[in-house]
């Protein structure tokens, strides 16, 4: 079986160091917000070039804390892609706010900046005061932040970058985490930089956003213990998870290079097959963390049958994401841009994600590619 994500290969490289880190935590006994959390925040600040980093309990909580820091209020709107994981949209209704769904670019899977004006107008005509835009760096490539930031500035909006999958990527030479007012990422185990449980972080150069989020993640506490400045939540990071991430962060730059090599090998061998598959497009001056390698299948291919064929050859696949967020029961009553969601709907029917991790060998990629070719030839001549 080819693993879809191979955490065991990575663990073999760092197991001893991780165990030493965990032992240190067990020895000092500060299991929540111990010194390793602050050490991780400092190193993430250096890595991204951002002044303030707050580590927390999950990527979803990171988004929620960022919205609290941005002072989003009930009834206000946030533009968000309909082609994403539920976390991107669910954090707005949790605050009584309104997600306004926008379409994506057909080749990058990310928010389409050319649709912002129509989406903003849609919400305004409905009487919704739009306060911000949530970009999402899906599958590893950052969204096209320059036009997004420009639109936001021209319309007095903020931008929150959901970098759960794109952390480690770059845009015009700038690190993800430092592309807008505030960014949030996830350290879920399957992410390019993942711990062995749940974890997340927010990144900002704005001291007020940081202070509000920092207070909010420990129940709204002030600088004085057991004095509360606001209603908050419990979103503290486990020290053991921070300890694990410290060791993973050491090999993260090398793993990003390896992920790019894996993507290059996929591009090479799938291109050679001439199967009319659309491969992921990495725009000029963009760098991806390659959280996923997602292809777009030709219209004549039965995706379910292809998945079954590959599964029979011990090749796992996944579909991210088959149903647009606005079509799920909890989100059906939220606004959709007047320009529609044509790309979101089409790609939901055609995307297929293949195994992707830094330790995937070229021989395994050749095997995957050849089995895709065989399935195409046998079933869809």
* Number of β-strand runs: 12
From N to C, what is the helix and strand string? HHEHEHEHEHEEEEEHHEEHHEH
Integer average pLDDT: 97
Principal-axis shape: globular
Which band does the percent of strand residues land in? 5-15%
Largest sheet: 7 strands, mixed
Unreliable residue runs? none
Estimated radius of gyration: 21 Å
Helix content: 40-55%
Strands in their spatial order, largest beta sheet: 1-9-8-5-4-2-3
Structural class: alpha/beta
Query: What's the end-to-end separation, in Å?
Result: 27 Å
Tally of separate helices: 11
Secondary structure blueprint with pairings:
Layout: H1 7-28, H2 35-48, E1 52-56, H3 59-69, E2 77-81, H4 87-94, E3 98-102, H5 116-125, E4 130-136, H6 145-154, E5 158-162, E6 170-171, E7 174-175, E8 182-186, E9 200-204, H7 207-216, H8 239-271, E10 286-287, E11 293-296, H9 303-312, H10 342-350, E12 351-354, H11 362-379
Parallel strand pairs: 2-3, 2-4, 4-5, 5-8
Antiparallel strand pairs: 1-9, 6-7, 6-10, 8-9, 11-12
Helix pairs in contact: 1-8, 2-8, 3-4, 3-7, 8-11
């Amino acid at each position: 079986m080819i693993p879809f994500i191979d955490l065991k290969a990575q663990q073999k490289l760092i197991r001893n160091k991780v165990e030493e880190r965990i032992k240190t935590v067990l020895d000092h006994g500060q299991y929540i917000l111990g010194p390793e959390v602050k050490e991780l925040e400092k190193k993430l600040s250096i890595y991204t070039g951002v002044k303030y980093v707050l580590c927390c309990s999950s990527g979803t909580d990171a988004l929620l804390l960022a919205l609290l820091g941005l002072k989003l209020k009930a009834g206000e709107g946030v533009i968000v892609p309909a082609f994403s994981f539920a976390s991107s949209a669910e954090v707005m209704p949790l605050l009584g706010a309104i997600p306004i769904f926008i379409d994506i670019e057909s080749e990058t899977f990310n928010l389409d900046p050319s649709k912002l004006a129509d989406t903003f107008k849609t919400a305004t005509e409905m009487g919704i005061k739009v306060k911000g835009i949530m970009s999402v760096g899906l599958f590893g490539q950052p969204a096209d932040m320059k036009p997004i930031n420009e639109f936001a500035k021209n319309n007095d909006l903020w931008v929150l970058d959901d970098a759960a999958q794109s952390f480690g990527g770059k845009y015009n030479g700038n690190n993800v985490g430092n592309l807008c007012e505030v960014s949030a990422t996830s350290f879920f185990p399957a992410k390019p930089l993942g711990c062995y449980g749940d974890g997340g972080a927010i990144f900002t150069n704005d001291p007020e956003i940081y202070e509000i989020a920092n207070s909010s993640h420990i129940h709204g506490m002030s600088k004085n213990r057991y004095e509360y400045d606001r209603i908050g939540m419990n979103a503290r990071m486990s020290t053991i998870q921070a300890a694990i991430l410290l060791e993973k962060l050491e090999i993260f730059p090398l793993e990003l290079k390896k992920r790019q090599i894996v993507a290059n090998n996929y591009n090479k061998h799938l291109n050679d097959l001439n199967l009319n598959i659309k491969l992921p497009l990495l725009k000029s001056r963009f760098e991806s963390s390659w959280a996923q390698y997602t292809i777009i299948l030709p219209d004549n291919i039965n995706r379910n049958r292809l998945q079954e064929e590959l599964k029979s050859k011990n090749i796992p696949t996944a579909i991210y994401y088959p149903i647009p967020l606005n079509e799920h029961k909890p989100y059906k009553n939220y606004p959709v841009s007047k320009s529609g969601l044509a790309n979101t709907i089409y790609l939901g029917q055609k995307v297929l994600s293949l195994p992707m991790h830094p330790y995937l060998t070229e021989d395994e990629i050749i095997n995957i590619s050849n089995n895709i070719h065989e399935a195409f030839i046998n079933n869809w001549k």
